[in-house]
């Protein structure tokens, strides 16, 4: 029997990455193509779905060409993607408007309307989450109100990764983990909610069929095969939203396991076999990629984004030096941060550049440096940013603890998870070991694993993870650091309540 291969596509906010894996999880070939995000107004965020598709075609072609693997030996393909984005197609499958993506904040009024129409408590009972500006339902309602002529022509509503699926297979489909973030899914029962759709006036026929994440949704179409070099025999599985995919890609598929992602946004994510919903709606409960299980997830809007914003605006010297040395600019920044003490010489940073989700659910709060004095150097500001993001992730972990979800160890993923300094900071702030996996391909590996299950190479998601995932280094908490961070965290927690009203006035 010839060796089989699996493809994972990860449609991110900054770019799409396609990775080809051997059956044991080793990377055979990988390619990334980046694309822009447009912000037509303050708080808006849009992308062109055509950019995602072009990036997918380019990366797929490149990976197949460079790997030398025969296309018919690629058993399955999974797609992971940024969640909550709204893609609207007409009856011919043509894109009607740019996609309104996850970090867009324009739908505050629409969320209030959705809450009034469904009822605040009922909405949490059905969708496991309050109405949030990031979620898709509010975006659909915004288009219904502000662009009625576009909504009239709409016949299909898809999530970003499901648009790629449509382009690859011709099928209109989604799966439970990503659909959970639309606010239209009955999360406890893993199906569309007729009640919510009816109250919001959304035709169920516009939505794709809902599958479990490892179920086969279709095969590569002749057109897509011609464009990419894929075989029409390659099957496509449900795949997963980016965080559910990262969970599979890091082996967080059983109780007691959790991970923290520091990507553009930050996530603290724990698996649970029992349905757990926060009645206050501060964290999200979604169906996870393991059939019959869920995950609970707190989100920090601007985690890695905070450090990237700081680097791009204030660290040009480091960026130039890094380019000259052929190293990563963040590595040079880390070296400087290590010279600043815990607490960054009494400087604090609130990472609310894009408003905040967990635990504040406040679209109006904004980023803050607090305690700035003439003694502070750039390294202190950089450290304060990293500590502030760590404290905001600790806020997420605390809410999970209140719900009875308490992980014994934490995996770190995303760009920030590559920093040993940042992982140590998280271990000290969280008070638990923080480890990595040997593969850095989190979401792409996760959906490739799901494709392996769909293709029958593995009997279950858990067994596939055991075969394909290998744990790397672990950072243990350092005893003397913990009380120092705890004192800083106490101070950090007092800042948001003290400024909450000022943020509201600023927004007006």
Task: Describe, in short, the structure shown.
The chain is α/β, with parallel strands linked by helices.
Would you write up a description of this structure?
The protein is 41% helix and 20% strand. It is built from 19 helices and 24 strands. The chain starts with a strand and ends with a helix. The mean pLDDT is 95.
- How many strand units? 24
Q: Helices and strands: which structural class?
A: alpha/beta
Distance between the ends:
66 Å
User: Kindly state the mean pLDDT as a whole number?
Assistant: 95
Q: Supply the number of helical segments.
A: 19
The gyration radius over C-alpha positions equals 22 Å
DSSP helix fraction: 40-55%
Q: Low-confidence segments, ≥5 residues, pLDDT <50?
A: none
Tell me the overall shape. globular
Beta-strand residue fraction: 15-25%
Q: Biggest β-sheet: count, sense, barrel?
A: 7 strands, mixed
State the main characteristics.
alpha/beta; 24 strands; 19 helices; seven-stranded mixed β-sheet; 508 residues
Task: Draw up the topology in text.
Layout: E1 5-11, E2 15-22, E3 27-34, E4 46-47, H1 49-67, E5 74-81, E6 87-89, E7 99-100, H2 108-118, H3 120-127, H4 136-146, H5 148-153, E8 156-158, H6 160-169, E9 173-175, H7 176-179, E10 185-186, E11 191-192, H8 194-200, E12 209-211, E13 216-219, H9 222-228, E14 235-237, E15 240-241, H10 242-249, E16 257-262, E17 266-272, E18 284-287, E19 294-300, H11 304-314, H12 316-325, H13 329-337, E20 348-350, E21 368-370, H14 378-402, E22 409-413, H15 414-417, H16 420-430, E23 434-437, H17 442-454, H18 461-468, E24 471-475, H19 481-507
Parallel strand pairs: 1-5, 5-14, 5-15, 9-12, 16-22, 22-23
Antiparallel strand pairs: 1-2, 2-3, 4-7, 6-8, 10-11, 13-14, 16-17, 17-19, 18-19, 20-21, 23-24
Helix pairs in contact: 1-6, 2-4, 10-17, 11-12, 11-14, 12-13, 13-14, 14-16, 17-18
